[in-house]
Amino acid sequence: MCLVGCSEDRCRCGYLRSRHVDEAIKPEDHALGSWDINRHVREARTDAFGTICFGGLGHKTAKYVRVSSDTRPEVLYELLTEQWKLTPPNLLISVTGGAKNFYLKARLKNMFHRGLIKVAQTTGAWILTGGTNTGVMKHVGQAVRSYALSSSLNGHIVAIGVATWGIIHNRHTLVNPEGSFPAHYDADAKGQGHLSCLDHNHTHFLLVDNGTHGQYGVEIELRALLEKCISGKKLANQASGVTIPVVCVVLDGGPGTLNTMYNAMLNGTPCVVLEGSGRIADVVANVAELPVSRVTIALIQQLMKKFFGQEYEGFSDAKIIDWTKKIQDIIRMPHLLTVFRVTADSYGDVDVAILRALLKASRSGECLGGESSQRQLELAVAWNRVDIAKTEIFTDESQWKSEQLHKAMFTALVGNKPDFVSLLLENGVSLRDFLQKETLCDLYKLLPNCLFLRRLAKRASTSQNLSRSPFKMHPRAISTQSQTISLSHVSVEVRRLLGSFTQHIYPPSATVYNLDTSTASDSVKESPDPQTNPERDLFLWAIIHNNKELAEIFWEECQDCMAAALAASKILKKLAEEGHDADEGEEMIKLAKHYEKRAMDVFSECYSCDEERAQKLLVRVSPFWGRTTCLRMALEADTQKFVAQSGVQGLLTQIWCGELSVENPVWRVLVCIIFCPLIYMPFLDYRRDEAIQREAEKKEEINTIESITGSVMYKSHSLGELSEEMQAKPLNGWMRLVSLYSSPQVKFYMNIVSYFGFLALFAVVLIVDFQPAPSGSEILLYIWIFSLVCEEIRQLFYDPDGFGFHKKAKMYINDLWNILDVLSIVLFIIGLGFRLDDTLFYAGKIVLCIDFMVFCLRLMAIFTISRTLGPKIIIVKRMMLDMFFFMFLLSIWVVAYGVAKQGILIHNEDRLGWILRGAVYEPYLTIFGDVPKNIDNTEFDISACSMNGSDPLKPKCPVLNEDEMPAFPEWLTIIMLCVYLLFANILLLNLLIAIFNFTFQEVQDNTDRIWKFQRYELIKEYHSRPAAPPPFILLSHLYMFLRSVLLRRPAKQELSGAEEEELLSWEALMKDKYLMSTKQEQLHSTERRIQDTAQKVSTLCDRLDRDEDPSSGSALKRLARLEEQVLQSAKALQWIMDSLKSPGVPAKDAPSLNVTLPDDSTDSSTNPAEKDEFFHVKARQLHYPDSRVTRFPVPEEKVPWEVSFSSYCPLYYTSSDTGDSTDGNPAGRTGLRGRGVLPRLGPNCSLDLILTRLNIHQVLCAFDVIYKHKYQLLFLISFQVFEVYKGYVDDHRNTDDAWVETTVLNLHLDRDSPLLTDINRMVTAGPASCLTRLWDISAWGSL
Description:
It is built from 45 helices and 23 strands. It is an alpha/beta fold.
């Protein structure tokens, strides 16, 4: 509220007098003096906040608040981040420049728009502008509008406008003491006058008010404080103290923009100037590469006149001098100044120029050496700009240690930045050093919200509760952490996802409470320590939260890649099954299929190279993935395509044949089963015989090559490879017999014969020999059934893979053939119980007859091994499921018609059998053409029915009339029958046929793959089945029981360490070969060629546009240099011709050939005298330290006293000392008279002592000690002292009448010096009498 300063109709604050209350404009208030904001304006609670709704298409909204000009910036930052829920930025881009509308060339405008939005979105930056719809703010708004919703750039752009409340047009619509949600703002520029409208493309507005109206620039101070506040905040996810970087982007602009730019660079903020945007930006861009000595007042006047036009006429000489001084100071800070030139190829785009400017400023900041590089890397990771990191940080000259990249690696992993992860791995990150146990735990704690994290937290909470339970438990250790996620929790959860057949992948650091439902009771288990593998750990971490990019990077680094891919497929399918998010589940299934294909491709590459090694990879136990095999993992993950590969099927065929050769015809095997002596003849081939034969052929080949070439090296090398095969010996007679009958193939054929014999015996008993007293054949049948029961029990409890009883029972029940086995055994037991009871003897036979049907259906299982009939069994299973659902649909029509028909024809039928017959059975038969006769009166026979339903063998007669004929409406029953047959017989049956046809086609396309996958279960069953068929299998069961009780169970055979390492190295080589071939295919694909061609065309067009630009500065300069060279060549040729024409006459002096170098070389060709000339810089800084005094601007050319400077009129700043002035500063003008803050006029002498020594690590160090009292150094007089420098010091406290002079001495101390201990203690303690600085100068060379 304004209180004083009113004149006529308008107050000094800019508002009309009518806007004030009477109390605010009392005449007596004028006695307080001139109008002052601090005295005559008071604050009140804000009455403008909420959401702005801009009119027009789209109805864009933005949040806003009206704040006081002296609001603390911390409050504003809290408002932005906590109230408005903005994510803290990784970069702050402050865009400044012309506040008036100015023209940007189309090319520069597009580059600015594209680059600004790209850098904002890729780095998560905030854009800070003036917020109005004019000048540079309007261009920023257009950039947000044009590119924020682009298909190639996704994300939300944060554009914050900091504007002056008093200059906003139509601001009354924003006022609402209760808040406006929303406030409808009209951005119509009509009638705005000197006011401005808000830009509707900004997302947030801070409207700064100081009580004035129509005064621009009120927000400048608060905006600068807000930028400084934000720049002091730490980057998100950064623990190293790296703060949010700030960059200033300058377009166009006038004197105010120059002041903003100057102050920003003094505060260490880098500035990016866009050349070609106009006015002050072009002035700075034109002199940026010139030496300071060439930036004269005349040059600045010339450039101002060129770029400001008519506006230049209003500039005074004093302002030109001031601006020249500021421009000189600006170009003295090249590390903070970056000029973006449209015609230059160095920066490419505006976003690259902005980020390079920040890195350049960071490189030249306070951080030295590795610390500066670390900060640059952290900034690049925060911005997620790999291109900047490649070109600016990871250069050929940079040398990085692995530990220096660990922090960036952790940030890239947590922030999901796969490109940076790949870049860091390429530049030397050692995953084994990086991924410590604590690091991996932190990664799991920082997982994004996903199903696995929720289960992990729940498991950790459960473990904590169990650790506090009063029950008796005997843990090895109890964790002291509260609800902390540990690797033991991860291991238990991963084991649950992989399956209980696997072991824990991480050793338990504390007690692991096994809560797996597959065990009978909870128990405490300790797992063996598995091998550590950081690539596996990171791949697993990426898989469980469905991160495809990171998972792909670490899969390529995995040593056991095929097992890793199959494990990932299993985990992802399990997570997709348990999750509730359909979209996320679909993505997981897609990723699971991707890794299934990866495993297939790697195995195919291995199998095509070496079949034997590839099959070893399938059955080798993987120590990294729960000590299971790839084949077992593939089956558990239901990867049908992987199992269907020829290499996997070849291994299964070898397992199926056992020791027999896969080349043996079936008929030979059957003959040998019947007549076993044939195995001692060359009638049946064995795999051992084939291996010996291959060995002999190789030896013969070696001998043949030796006889021709005489190569000894080839012989020794070959014998080394055959060393294992040379130990193979032929099978003896007993082993041939055992190998024959232990082959799964032979077991299968023998069990088929046995099963046919069992069915024949069962049929004989049922048809011929079913007596009240069991006969011998029936007792044999009982023994046979008992052997089948024992085998089923063995299959249920036999668990070589360690699944656990719960998992094994679930797998057993899920098999259809096992269900038929259990059903047949249960029916036989029921039938046997009935058969032994005389009263139920016949019922028992009926049950056994039904049981015989079930046993016959079980016979279909033998066809699953057949390549022809096996797929048909699969089709029959699928059709049975289809028919089950169809029968439910059909039963609706059958019951509907049957009940209606029965109710119309028969009155009050109470016999249940005849009710079901009429309501269900007869309608069902009607579908197959058995049309009932009782619906038509023409075939009615009263003798065929019972009038009152007393005859149980006859149906009840329908309701009769007087003529003893049916009284029901015949036409209705016929219509009902027709409709029923139309829908049931035509529609539904044809629908069933169509369903069967669809199922057949669907399964037929994949029937081969499905059959190959299910074939494994049959092979596994007969591989573990005893050799003897039922009923002789009882002897095998007895032998197995005795062996399990009396003998120790043999351990699994595993590869030796050398074989394991060699096999994994070969697998990794095949994986790299596969990845290389895949990349080559992608490079030569049509889509990639089109992309490359489009990129090349775009680059060519860009360069053509750049060369055709008439304002291209580089083209004009090249033409000017060319013209100059042509002119000089013409003069030289003329001189040569004159000399040749007058050989006896001395020629004129040869013209000097001055070669004009490019602009890049201009600085280096400067006059040496000009370089040696010294002018103080710090002593001419405009802001004098520790005061509010501003120096008179002294440009570089006006520093010497010899140079005339008529307008030089500096202020006089001194203390109470009024001594006479001296002759003047020996280094020239400083822009301030008096002694300033120095103690005396004239020279103020000081002493600087440099102590050097060699530390214990032989590194040269220097102590720069500045003493306040020189007498404290008298104890060093006895030592040899070297004078390094004596003279004038460019100090920021210097004035024209007072300056600092110093003497620099160097004292070098040996390591054995007695004073070294005292000096070290003095430096460490840092006494108040001295200021010390320690520098490591080992990299500076010798002093």
